[in-house]
């Protein structure tokens, strides 16, 4: 089998999204460390891999990709017969999956990433947390999690009764938020709290933590 | 039973779904939702989409929201008719379509929708557009279009040499954008301009564009 390589950073949420998928599928791969502090992702040769200058980039043999959620979908389909099932068969089930992935991307991630940036990543760059932004974004996240609470009252995982890419895509940002005061938003909602405990304790979720 | 789309043709996200239905030559019923009267925030609508947004699709007992999940479902269900929007016969081409759909979703859409929000939605709420937000997002959009300019110099469409969902998802917001005073961002990039003129003149879009009726402020 040709080699799988991920070009990224072990602390990056988008890189972790791909690494978790690879671990779920029990695939061998090489993580090629991109030096973000040096701006390596904004220069050649990385830009030839992703002209948008964002990690991760990916290759499987000579097939190259970027955008973490396209990469995870490739992994899930190409290696459907290996490791854990990350999809749900049938066009209606796949539609529910697609919808769940869109909700994560458009409703959850935009808010959750801002909270991660303000409370964690800004510190790496010597910048101060803006508590007003945190407060505002927590209100938004609360509303999203209210919808998740209702959904998880009906279904063990977001798309269906087993773990899929929809749940997986949430893990890296949630792991960071559990180390901040925002954790309370997850703890306060029993179904969400149980789901978070479940998905973050999966072996693949643990493997990517530093 | 025909598919039902809940929404209003003036919404770019609804138009995205209508465009896909026309490309797939699929019958549907558009069930009007009065956005100005905030009917999309009523309990009857929220029971279909708890996020209170149009469009919603009903196909028999399946209810879906999120326009790009809906287009993916329609394109897959009707993959054997109309335009091939997903390149489903080749697994690698299919994932490249997904890749450029992600690019639209994460790079193009945040910038262009922020501009359209300021220049269309904000005035409808009786407020003044925030020039700083417009400027910041025009700059981001310009950088995305630089990448598109280079890509479209190599392939006729974003994901390859045929029109796919990756192109389709861009069309409704770009249509509104071209009515603003910033159309130069597209027109000044020859490959992007040629691509735009091609995609917006497709017969399927000519059925959808009359519904995109809101007029942006031109600044």
TrEMBL record, chain A:
It is an enzyme of class 2 (transferase). Its main location: cytoplasm. GO terms for biological process: glutathione metabolic process; toxin catabolic process. GO terms for cellular component: cytosol. GO terms for molecular function: glutathione binding; glutathione transferase activity. It is found in: Cytoplasm, Cytosol. It catalyses: RX + glutathione = an S-substituted glutathione + a halide anion + H(+). Residues 90-210 form the GST C-terminal domain. Gene3D superfamilies: 1.20.1050.10, Glutaredoxin. Residues 2-83 form the GST N-terminal domain. Keywords: Cytoplasm, Detoxification, Transferase. It holds the Pfam family GST_N. InterPro entries: Glutathione-S-Trfase_C-like (IPR010987), Glutathione-S-Trfase_C_sf (IPR036282), Glutathione_S-Trfase (IPR040079), Glutathione_S-Trfase_N (IPR004045), GST_C (IPR004046), GST_Phi_C (IPR034347), Thioredoxin-like_sf (IPR036249). Its EC number is 2.5.1.18. PANTHER family: GLUTATHIONE S-TRANSFERASE F6-RELATED, GLUTATHIONE S-TRANSFERASE RHO. Belongs to the GST superfamily. Phi family. This is glutathione transferase. It comes from Brassica carinata (Ethiopian mustard).
Automatic annotation (TrEMBL), chain B:
GO terms for biological process: glutathione metabolic process; toxin catabolic process. Its EC number is 2.5.1.18. Pfam families: GST_C, GST_N. One of its GO terms (cellular component) is cytosol. GO terms for molecular function: glutathione binding; glutathione transferase activity. Keywords: Cytoplasm, Detoxification, Transferase. InterPro entries: Glutathione-S-Trfase_C-like (IPR010987), Glutathione-S-Trfase_C_sf (IPR036282), Glutathione_S-Trfase (IPR040079), Glutathione_S-Trfase_N (IPR004045), GST_C (IPR004046), GST_Phi_C (IPR034347), Thioredoxin-like_sf (IPR036249). The keyword Transferase applies. Gene3D superfamilies: 1.20.1050.10, Glutaredoxin. It is found in: Cytoplasm, Cytosol. Residues 1-82 form the GST N-terminal domain. Residues 90-219 form the GST C-terminal domain. It is an enzyme of class 2 (transferase). It comes from the Eukaryota. Coiled coil: none annotated. It catalyses: RX + glutathione = an S-substituted glutathione + a halide anion + H(+). Belongs to the GST superfamily. Phi family. This is glutathione transferase. It comes from Brassica carinata.
């Amino acid at each position: 089998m040709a080699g799988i390589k991920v070009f990224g950073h072990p602390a990056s949420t988008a890189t972790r999204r791909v690494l978790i998928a690879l671990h779920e599928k029990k695939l061998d791969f090489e993580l090629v460390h991109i030096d973000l502090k040096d701006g390596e992702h904004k220069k050649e040769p990385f830009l030839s891999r992703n002209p948008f200058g964002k990690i991760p980039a990916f290759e499987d043999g000579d097939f190259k990709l970027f955008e973490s959620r396209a990469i995870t979908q490739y992994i899930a389909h190409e290696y459907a017969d290996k490791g854990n099932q990350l999809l749900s068969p049938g066009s209606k089930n796949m539609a529910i999956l697609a919808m769940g992935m869109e909700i994560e991307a458009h409703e959850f991630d935009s808010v959750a990433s801002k909270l991660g940036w303000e409370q964690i990543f800004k510190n790496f760059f010597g910048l101060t947390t803006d508590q007003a932004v945190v407060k505002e974004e927590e209100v938004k996240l609360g509303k999203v999690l209210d919808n998740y609470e209702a959904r998880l009252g009906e279904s063990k995982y977001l798309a269906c009764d087993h773990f899929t890419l929809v749940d997986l895509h949430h893990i890296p940002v949630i792991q960071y938020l559990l180390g901040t005061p925002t954790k309370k938003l997850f703890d306060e909602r029993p179904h969400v709290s149980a789901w978070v405990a479940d998905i973050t304790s999966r072996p693949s979720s643990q493997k990517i933590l530093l | 039973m025909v598919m039902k789309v809940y929404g209003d043709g003036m919404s770019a996200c609804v138009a995205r779904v209508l465009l896909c239905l026309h490309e797939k030559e699929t019958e549907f019923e558009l069930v009007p939702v009065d956005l100005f009267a905030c009917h999309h925030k009523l309990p009857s609508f929220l029971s279909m989409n708890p996020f209170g947004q149009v469009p919603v699709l009903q196909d028999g007992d399946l209810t879906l929201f999120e326009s790009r999940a809906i287009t993916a479902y329609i394109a897959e269900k009707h993959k054997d008719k109309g335009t091939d929007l997903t390149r489903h016969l080749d697994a690698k081409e299919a994932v490249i379509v997904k890749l450029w759909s992600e690019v639209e979703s994460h790079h193009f859409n945040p910038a262009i929708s922020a501009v359209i929000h300021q220049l269309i939605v904000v005035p409808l709420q009786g407020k003044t557009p925030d020039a700083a937000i417009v400027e910041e997002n025009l700059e981001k959009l310009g950088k995305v279009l630089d990448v598109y300019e280079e890509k479209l110099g190599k392939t006729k469409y974003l994901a390859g040499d045929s029109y796919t969902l990756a192109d389709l998802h861009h069309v409704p917001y770009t249509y509104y954008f071209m009515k603003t005073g910033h159309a130069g961002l597209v027109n000044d990039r020859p490959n992007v301009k040629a691509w735009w003129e091609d995609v917006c003149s497709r017969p399927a879009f000519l059925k959808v564009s009359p519904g995109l009726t809101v007029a942006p402020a031109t600044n």
